[in-house]
Amino acid sequence: MTTMLSNGTEAKVGTLGSKYAFFHEWKRLKEDEEGSVALETMLRGICNKRNLMDLFENFILFDHSGGHTAKILARNHQYLGVNEAVEVYRQRKLRDGKLGVFWHTQGSGKSYSMLFLAQKIRRKFDGSPTFVVLTDREELNTQISDTFENCGMLGNVKASKYIAQSGEDLIHKLKSNPSFIFTLIQKFNQKGLPPITPNYDIIIMSDEAHRSQNGIFAENMMALLPTASRIGFTGTPLFSNDSITERTFGGYISIYDFKRAVEDGATVPLYYENRGEKLGTIQNPEITQEIMDAIEAADLDVSQQEKLEREFAKEIHILTAQPRLDAIARDFVEHYTNAFLREKGFSLAALVEAKDFAKQALIRAGADAVCGSMEEKKEFQTYASEFVRVMKYLQRDDLTEQQLTCRDAIVAIYKELQAKRKHADNTDLMVEINRIVSESLALEPTSEGLMESKRFDISKIDFDLLHREFAKAANKGLIIKDLTELVEERLKQMLRSNPARIDYYERYQSIIEQYNAEKDRSEIERIFDELTKLAQDLSQEEKRYVREGFSSDEELSVFDLLFKEDLNKKEIEMIKKVAVDLLAKVKAKISELDHWTDKTETKAIIDNLIRDTLWAELPESYDELSVSAHRQEIYQYIYMRYKDAA
């Protein structure tokens, strides 16, 4: 059914056989949680029996669009949001038909969420409900009905059979209890009809609900279907003064906003820069008369004339004139790609003209040129990704041969920059730094049928050799990029388990600030040395709990939070015992409580347990203020580390 990928701490889940790009994180057990990519979160969110069977039964689709079949597993936000909606539907008789508003930002799979919801309600509730899928534009109506058909929700029946062709056809379908009806809100165009109150459920799922919930058509719908349940789906937040939407559907039942979607990788970030092509003077003195002649020849009616006047007021014809659009396109390509590379000392023309092996070397040189700092790398990636997206909308015939070769060159640099260097597990930070030390390290034997992978033991690396090889490397920027990404990834994991390691993060930030500010390339090797030294120190820090005599990094974390500088040897041993004892007591107590962070009473139980243990077991050198401070720090650590414990 599904495949989980994990390095022991972080984890992703996807369907068997999917490309890695389609694997996603399972970060939350509840929708309002901040989110953690820890393996523990995924195991508790997916692998308990109830959730696993729920996913297997209700949250897998097979989409046959485009001539091939894709297996779709619900993402974390879809699973949580749909189940919230299902619970609201369970209480529908108490909600006066208002199931609420399902706000999931654009690009986060809203259409699939609608399918998951319909699928689960049909399977888990008695009766034979009719789902009325409501849109306000013909293309949306076609798009969503095709999605339902391609995912097998309509059986072997074509979607067209479920689409209301007219107001009369809609009434007929509503009375005949089909599984689905796809209709435009405009089809509710008859006023004063007798209400339809069948003995089965009618569930209205309104797409882009904020646009279709008011007006005469919506009033007709409400009057015609007084017993229907209504849920609104939208990709944009409602305005604070939008009382009509709330009056029609109720309040939010699930929120997955743009910020969270970007953080989760469900959609891409949005950037805005105010650039524009200045408009010159009109060169045709006869333009006014020509436009008037065209309007007169069109013989417009009153409503068409009003629409034309509104469009002229917006200056839409000027803003979308072809010369202006062409100029904007040229500005975008020049400003956001070629000029950026030129500023970094790289010639795109040289890459375009290069052949064979020289071309590959220049691609790497271009990627290296934009890695002068972390900010420069991110800036180029943003420009290039948008450039790639825009170019998809152009026909090949619209581009000259030179433009095509420039496009291919920019895309090649972008892909080289996106390439991830292979790395082993999280205990070995010095991972294949552009293969400059690969010849000095042995490969581990592989199991039959598995791909061979390299694992590096830092203790065996000759750092003198490493330094010499780095000094000779041509693409130092790419090597620094790889190393900083690996160090940053490791730091996030280590800080999550032990916040007392903040000094390592500050040290890393200082190195990166030096790198971003450093324009003298002769200093780049010093920065590389600082990063490799930090990598070594992180590796040693991760093994410290063993050296200190603890059985886990968690015990070491509590010890670090209790430690102070003026302790003697005997007191240090006492603190170690307190750390082990306190953690064991707290974990045992949490296991007895039901979602302990949800209630003030259960949080107080844990807080008091920490207080009592510290007062009873800490050395006498810890005064009242000291105990209080350590108590707060440890409570915060326990809360963040175990707040999801059921």
Keywords:
646 residues, 10 strands, alpha/beta, 27 helices
Strand and helix map with partners:
Elements: E1 2-6, E2 11-15, H1 39-46, H2 49-58, E3 60-63, E4 70-73, H3 76-90, E5 98-104, H4 110-124, E6 130-135, H5 138-150, H6 167-175, E7 180-184, E8 202-207, H7 209-212, H8 216-224, E9 229-234, H9 243-249, E10 252-256, H10 258-264, H11 287-298, H12 302-313, H13 316-319, H14 322-343, H15 348-353, H16 356-369, H17 374-391, H18 401-418, H19 463-472, H20 476-497, H21 502-517, H22 524-542, H23 544-547, H24 553-562, H25 569-592, H26 600-617, H27 624-642
Characterize the structure shown.
The chain has 27 helices and ten strands. The chain is of the alpha/beta class. It has helices at residues 39-46, 49-58, 76-90, 110-124, 138-150, 167-175, 209-212, 216-224, 243-249, 258-264, 287-298, 302-313, 316-319, 322-343, 348-353, 356-369, 374-391, 401-418, 463-472, 476-497, 502-517, 524-542, 544-547, 553-562, 569-592, 600-617, 624-642, and strands at 2-6, 11-15, 60-63, 70-73, 98-104, 130-135, 180-184, 202-207, 229-234, 252-256. The two termini are 26 Å apart. Strands 7-6-8-9-5-10 form a six-stranded parallel β-sheet, sandwiched between helices. The chain has a two-stranded antiparallel ribbon with strand order 1-2. Strands 3-4 form a two-stranded antiparallel ribbon. Helix 16 (356-369) crosses helix 18 (401-418) and helix 25 (569-592) runs antiparallel to helix 26 (600-617). The model is unreliable at 421-461 (pLDDT under 50). It is flat, with a radius of gyration of 31 Å.
